[in-house]
Amino acid sequence: MRLEFETIEIEAHLDANSTYRFWTFNGKVPGPFARVRVGDTVEVYLKNHEDSWYAHNIDLHAVTGPGGGAALAQPGPGEDYSFKFKALNAGLYVYHCAVSPVAQHISNGMYGLILVEPEEGLPPVDREYYVMQGELYTEERFGTSGPLNESYDKLVDERPEFFIFNGHTGALTEHYPLKANVGETVRIFFGVGGPNYISSFHVIGEIFERVYLQGSLETPPLRDVQTVTVPAGGSAMVEFKCDVPGRFVLVDHALSRAEKGLAGYLFVEGDEVPEVFSSLNG
After folding, report:
1. Rounded to a whole number, what is the distance in angstroms from the first to the last CA of the chain?
2. Exposed (0-12), middle (13-18) or buried (19+): which is 276, by Cβ within 10 Å?
3. How far is CA 241 from CA 2, 74, 122, 181, 205, in A?
4. Each residue's pLDDT tens digit, 29-47
5. What is the pTM of this model?
6. Neighbours of 163 (CB within 10 A)
7. Domains along the chain?
């Protein structure tokens, strides 16, 4: 199994009216979803784009080895490195850049998830989605238009201006909302890049029928859970059946964060199911 990453610093929209210089894996926030299986020997190749301003590397929490692979090198612009590891443990793991100051690299967008499936794989579901939560620390206040600049002082003081799903305030609302049909089962691979804040992940109007806490896939799941606590640098896998149609909102139930950009939508289409949910007002 071969995983290829390129670290790219790119100016992109943070919301409809502002831009930010993100630091990314493969030009995306979060980085690409990686999927391997227990027992695989995985080769990791990382190149730092020649136009980068800073050194970057990768720490995969699925790796058994110093720094999760990050201890081997810190390639500067135009440089690269590679390593291999054996996937020993099933689970859903975070990866991130680990060049100092690590929190700065993570906050700017350098995080993602790697799934190590059990030998027998995961049970099939109808829909799978990849969602990560992060924070951004800008000199300018939330809602400011134009190019925004990072604030190292706010970062070390843990005072973010933005909370985001998948790198943009409208990523899962305006641009790429989740979709499903009545009767389908949805699986969400959820992680928190952070670098600092815990998430209380919740889908308003749904109940997680199965929750694999801390990304542990070998532990029996919790059943019928309303809200899942996921630490910075942690993950959870949740599954639920879509019983009725409508718009369901993804949030961190620390709900003030919705006012700083943190929300997503799941649109479920299909016929009404009045025996499950209906109005009494006619």
Report:
1. 57
2. exposed
3. 34, 44, 16, 10, 12
4. 999 999 999 999 999 999 9
5. 0.97
6. 23
7. 2-117 (2.60.40.420), 127-269 (2.60.40.420)
